[in-house]
Specification:
This protein is mainly beta. It has helices spanning 121-124, 243-248, and strands spanning 2-4, 10-14, 19-25, 40-48, 52-59, 63-70, 72-77, 82-87, 91-95, 100-106, 111-117, 130-134, 140-144, 147-153, 167-173, 178-180, 186-199, 202-205, 209-212, 218-235. The strands form 3 sheets. Strands 1, 13, 14, 15, 16, 17, 18, 19 and 20 form a 9-stranded antiparallel sheet that branches. Strands 2-3-4-11-6-9-12 form a 7-stranded antiparallel sheet, with no helix packed on it.
Length: 249
């Protein structure tokens, strides 16, 4: 298990600091200690300090997800050729396929995760680009004791991904401990959105990024005030050469 505090994550900015980012998984130029693993290629938390637009730019092959954590954003791409609003709780996925260009407008105080996964570029680069928007109210929520779980993808999830074996959920804890069984075939990546608590005897707090890849069971206990965790699970071995793997070789 590795805990990467925000001070050890990558960073970036757009439009002279109008949009700021910390990047648990960034590009080499972003700094930080973590590079892509399995099918998980990129992860940024972006926040709009004022209304600001990231201009039109291209993507290919990857699946690019935007999770709106706070506030509002608008999104444009050359597939739908229109601006679409997204608000807190909403999610969008772009399957970039043979190619698509998009732009994003983050309103003041808007906060998003943008996460890229590699669904096997040897296949997706042959496909037409596609996208889906999901309203936050459409996702299934399960309640257990003092814990509620929003299921985005995988078990009980609504999102459709071409990348195999992905499970995405948001875990909101108030008082009770949360237990997650171990599995050596999976890598679990956790981002602490808010609050603090204990994970297997270690303190975790807001903006920590945690990678659990040893197959151990997970036990999380919130401190007073609760704990809000975004959890992204991928296979330990995706079953195909990823872009990052090919570049490293």
């Amino acid at each position: 298990m590795r805990i990467i505090p925000i001070s050890q994550q990558g960073s970036g900015a757009f439009n002279n600091g109008q949009i700021i980012e910390n990047k648990p998984i960034g590009f080499p130029s972003d700094g930080g200690f973590v590079r892509p693993y399995s099918s998980l290629f990129y992860w940024a938390r972006a926040e709009g300090l004022i209304d600001s637009t990231i201009g039109l730019h291209p993507h290919q092959g990857f699946e690019i997800m935007s999770f709106v954590l706070e506030g509002n954003i608008r999104h444009f791409d050359t597939k739908m050729n229109d601006w679409k609003p997204l608000e807190a709780g909403d999610v969008q996925i772009i399957r970039a396929g043979r190619g698509i260009s998009h732009a994003e407008h983050i309103h003041k105080d808007g906060v998003i995760f943008q996460i890229w996964v590699d669904p096997d570029l040897s296949k997706t680069l042959q496909q037409e680009a596609s996208y889906d928007d999901y309203k936050g109210s459409a996702f299934q929520v399960t309640e257990t004791g003092g814990t509620s779980i929003i299921h985005y993808a995988g078990e009980n999830g609504l999102m459709r991904l071409d990348t195999p074996g992905v499970d995405i959920r948001r875990i909101k804890m108030t008082t009770d401990a949360f237990q997650w069984e171990g599995n050596k075939e999976l890598i679990r990546s956790l981002y602490i959105i808010g609050g603090s608590g204990m994970l297997d005897g270690k303190t975790i707090e807001q903006d920590d990024f945690i990678i659990i890849d040893d197959g151990s069971p997970i036990s999380i206990t919130p401190h007073r005030g609760g704990l809000d965790i975004f959890a992204f699970t991928v296979p330990a071995t995706p079953g195909y050469p990823t872009y990052a793997h090919r570049m490293i070789r």
